[in-house]
Specification:
Layout: H1 4-14, E1 19-24, E2 31-37, H2 46-56, H3 58-63, E3 67-73
Parallel strand pairs: 2-3
Antiparallel strand pairs: 1-2
Length: 75
């Protein structure tokens, strides 16, 4: 299990300067709604943006995170 704050710190580290929001969708600390707004997404298709977020969380998704809903944005 992970807290939204822990996930937010991981994503902020992976995407310096990004705005990151993480919410626990079910209260069980394993289903999260994630929004990442980052300049690093500019010029990348949506699938690549989402893969970048999934890659940043790969280790946690093996055992601590069951599901994520990802939204990515370009500032």
């Amino acid at each position: 299990m992970m807290t939204p704050d822990e996930i937010q710190k991981i994503l902020e580290s992976a995407f310096p300067g990004a705005w990151v929001s993480v919410e626990d969708m079910t209260g069980t600390q394993d289903h999260f709604d994630i929004v990442v707004t980052s300049e690093s997404f500019r010029g990348k298709p949506l699938i690549e943006q989402h893969r970048a977020v999934q890659t940043a969380l790969a280790e946690q998704m093996e055992s601590k995170i069951h599901a994520v809903k990802i939204k990515t944005r370009i500032p």
